Amino acid sequence: MFDRPRIPLALAVLLLLMPQYVYVIGDYLAAGIRFPFFRVQLAFPSVTAHGNATAGNLTVSTITVMREVQFITMGIVGKPLGRTAVATYLWLAGLAILILAVGLVLSWKVLDNPGHGRFVGPLVFVAGLVFLLWGAVQFGPIYAGPSGYAIPIGIPFVLFIGYLFMKAAKPDGEKAG
Fold first, then answer.
1. pLDDT tens for each residue of the chain, 177 residues long
2. On the CB side of 133, how many CA atoms lie within 13 Å of its CA?
3. Does residue 15 sit in helix, strand or coil?
4. Which structural domains are found in the chain, ordered by start?
């Protein structure tokens, strides 16, 4: 399947661009879509006790991963080792692993280093697991709780693509298990 270099390169680009999570914060205070490098978040107008909105418009924000780190270091998020901070650090770790995997795909297919292909699958798979752990840390073990809920829409694809890369790196005589 990966005989042509365009297929693994396209999958690597897809890993970096596809949405990973859809989430809601709290009791519908905000909702968003999380991508590997950023998230797009809609903040809903606050509602008074009488059910009247205090503001008329939604606020749309694009928050990069580096901006999230700034929120933690500046103390805007709260405790430096609180749940959101730990979840952000996990996301950074998963993103670093994913970037390393994409770099290995480039080395494998563009620079013709076939030995690098065997590392791509496990790295992509681990990145998917770390992204999956992000949701459990941020929202709870079942991806729902008082802080909101999350649906890991892209994570199954990341894990599947990791499996495909692992299968492609096996020698011809071996079966993928």
1. 566 668 888 898 999 999 999 999 888 888 999 999 999 999 877 654 455 555 566 788 999 989 988 888 887 776 667 788 888 889 999 999 999 999 999 888 888 877 888 899 999 999 999 999 999 999 988 999 888 999 999 999 999 999 998 888 766 544 444
2. 16
3. helix
4. 6-169 (1.20.140)
**How far does CA 12 lie from the centroid of its chain?**
14
Rounded Cα distance, 150 and 143, in Å: 5
Structure tokens at 54: 């205090």
